[in-house]
């Protein structure tokens, strides 16, 4: 089945340099930088960034190499609201071959887009390079986010780079050690909330509404513009290597920001004719089974996602019960002919080990993509002739405790070569 994307669009009457914001629910338009808003003034719907001129492949300036000018996110500035951002720099991540996993899962091609190779070790950097640039444009001095960890690490680093104050709200005791360490050393003020991620997001939205800080969660539509470049990189690289586009992209889902960003990427490519309907990859979301409201909505065919109050998983990055980008992401999964699937913590850890055996070190949430691929191969929903890209969103070092648990035990030996040889011979 080929995708059928909704490409309807209205003409702008409020554009600034060809950029404006549109409410995805009621279509109301807003000038992008004149006032700070995160959702629609009229209906509170999610906002999306729109452009008068969308680019096609030629507009990105030829071969993508570190030597050929801007590399990574800003190579795609023709598809972004600015020419450059607050950059460390970010993007340009590897699209690994994983031959053993490819053979085991029995798909035609399997590649792994490793977003853990970004400056702070997760894809969040792509959103922050744009988001913090917008913060400068609208003239704020304090940035804030709620986070399961990675967003806070990225915001802290990009805020520091821009010389801005940052405030991060984290669910107490539920954030992996590497991420808190990053936020702390980059100088963010860290507030540990006695609640889960969803309650942190409620509070930070209240703070933003009262003008206390500029919100840089993925509710902020500019974040998703940066994250859209994951899709551009996958499509361009895969096509350069294989001569075709991938059939499917499998990704872990928390707030569903990446799912929404990839869907937007494909719609924009479709709109300018850079790809056809039958070249749109099927968006396939994976959640942990005790944090799976999106999977529930897809399986039950619901238009809205029910908020899960009690969520739990070892993949703390995606321990989220209220995916705020669901209204953007659900149509993306449906229109591309994709699906969503839940996996257990054990399946996630197994997948983390399998990736590590190929030399690809990821945090648990990232491995959910491989665990989801395995499950959908078992059920036959992903077919043997498919070209699949799995997205791994964060680096192994983000969650050292999970890595220790999944890995082998160190073996104590005496301080003596003969004794070491004896030990090895045992
Ligand atoms: N993978 C990792 C490693 C993440 O950190 C996140 C989200 C996701 C996947 C889910 O991405 O929200 O776009 O569906 N982490 C956020 C944070 C919530 O605060 O770091 P999504």
H and E string: EEEEHEHEHEHEHEHEHEHHEHHEHH
By CATH reckoning, the class of the largest domain would read Alpha Beta
Shape: globular
Q: Would you tell me the overall average pLDDT?
A: 96
Radius of gyration of CA atoms, rounded to a whole number: 21 Å
> How far is the first residue's CA from the last residue's CA?
57 Å
Overall tally of domains? 2
Profile the largest sheet. Answer: 6 strands, mixed
Strand percentage lies at: 5-15%
Query: Which parts are unreliable, with pLDDT below 50 for 5 consecutive residues or more?
Result: none
CATH architecture of the largest domain: 3-Layer(aba) Sandwich
Tally of strands: 13
How do the strands line up in the largest sheet?
4-5-13-10-11-12
Output the structural class: alpha/beta
Task: List all distinct small molecules, including ions and cofactors, that are bound in this structure.
Answer: ligand F0G
CATH fold title of the largest domain: Rossmann fold
GO molecular function: threonine synthase activity
Cofactor: pyridoxal 5'-phosphate
EC number: 4.2.3.1
Family: Belongs to the threonine synthase family.
